[in-house]
């Protein structure tokens, strides 16, 4: 009989005992140390702790925890921690006192996790599908005396956030959009609020929509440029008639400016100007806006200086503070370029280059589109910092567009507000960009925005402020806020060649620009002569402020030497005055021909 070796059997027995021992150790210490565990569609991460001798027995799905704990879902971390101030969960008592709180126990089951706090409060996270979209709901059972729980949140590294208005955000994670909806939050502190008797918090995926097509937001009147122009011209006809009828009794500068600018287009300029009441012409409240038509240069030109200084100071302060709110001012690049402030353009451009496209909000999109077009005009050979943001701007606009059930009005909504003036500026900026980019669909949507705003006008020279969006995503007229004048809308619309404006007089001469109603201003310099060409309807008179003119020896108008005269505005002819300290030339131009020349001899 052959005996089997003893050593292998002993070794096998030792290995078996070792495995049993390791299993016992794992069972004993399974609930100690750090952990990361998936619970349904979210992940819980934290630290297990060992119980004390008097700790009640735990259920099979319960765990003792200690230290920082986090829940991860949809690119967001919900914090219950103590390591830094931004991650501290707080419980607020009815007395207003608040204190830090850490959960000491959790229970996991299916799609939910419940965190228990030492004072008796418990916090539940659960995922479910609502409306076909995955949602994380957070609810709380408060201990006696506790009225509120402050739950910190923070986006993960690759998560993008975009302000959608009214304090709400769209969170973009792995190609999916999420939203806190109407959940109460403080976006500055990044804290969510659960209140006793209040609704649970909701953080859910935004249901996917069909692929956006700008053509879906083109109203019938805006299908073609010809139809669009016909509607705009009818709107101008109706309002020009109103401005004409009421001008004699008006002291509203916006209306007077709209009347004069449109009258130049229609060939009725003299009649329009003569209808302006003397009380308005002599009013101390009149500004440089109407000076281009009505004169008063000697008294009012400093209004232009003051307005420019205030605007430059405000915009430069925003740029220095790294605030993109400077883009809320229309055509900032053009404003600085015409006045020769290239340094502010450069600083603003650096700020634009640093902008994360995912954070772009609707209220900045007109400034992005205007900046793109104006940059191509004034700096065509330089890298355009706005170009990389155009696609995101169009995406943000597409998310905001709504069409009424009748299909004849389209508005962009910032939160629940569809402001008329903002939509008109947005439509104009979008149309200029779309025309430059040869994008017919976006051009149609832009025309639709413009016509939708103009349709708010009534027969009294005013327009409703815009539309509001209710909880069912339905549009209704905004009747709570004051109306705006159609004259103001006309100015935003870009009324045409003869509106008051600042014009650069051309590349050959730097830092010289004009405040004028002229259709065009150009310049050429040969030796010691600066020749400024001014285009305006023959037989009509207008007034100009030309900045940056250094001291000179003489001026020629109509090819003849003209001497200055302090009373030059009273004569039925051209004339001038010069403010040497400001290097500003004040001109009255009476046009014998469409183009007149001002020759300045140095």
Give the key terms.
602 residues; alpha+beta; Immunoglobulin-like; 3 domains; 14 helices; elongated
Characterization of this structure:
- The structure is a single chain.
- This protein has about 600 residues and is an alpha+beta fold.
- The chain has 14 helices and 35 strands.
- It folds into three domains: about 30-205, no CATH class; about 225-490, no CATH class; about 500-600, Immunoglobulin-like.
- The chain is about 30% helix and about 30% strand.
- α2 runs parallel beside α13 (about 440-455) and α8 (about 330-340) runs parallel beside α10.
- It starts with 6 loop residues before the first helix and ends with a strand.
- Residues about 20-30 have low confidence and may be disordered.
User: CA-to-CA gap between the ends?
Assistant: 131 Å
Number of strands: 35
Radius of gyration: 34 Å
Oligomeric state of this protein:
single chain
Helical run tally: 14
